[in-house]
Design a protein that fits this description.
Blueprint (H helix, E strand, L loop, with lengths): L6 H11 L8 H14 L3 H13 L6 H14 L10
């Protein structure tokens, strides 16, 4: 959808999938959702969602990475986590 210039439609399809945890597609959903957010100019939210997803794969500094991602959202006025941790 986003490749067709319809990032909002892409989000509409991906948002319900972002609550389906453990289906093996969690990280893929985060990546393509972040790309759609970036296309919509929502860069802090896109970056924060990627950092949250990546943080869970880090051998160290996981909590710090989550806090930095939350800080991006707070600075953008969105506050809190997108529910990825």
């Amino acid at each position: 959808m986003r490749n067709l210039g319809r990032p909002q439609d892409s989000l509409a399809l991906l948002d319900p999938e972002s609550t389906t945890v453990g289906d093996g597609l969690d990280d893929a959903v985060v990546v393509f959702r972040a790309l759609a957010l970036a296309d919509l100019g929502r860069h802090p939210e896109a970056t924060a969602s990627l950092v949250h997803a990546l943080a869970d794969h880090l051998p160290r500094y996981t909590a710090s990475a989550h806090r930095y991602a939350d800080a991006l959202l707070a600075a953008d006025g969105r506050g809190g986590s997108p529910g990825t941790h």
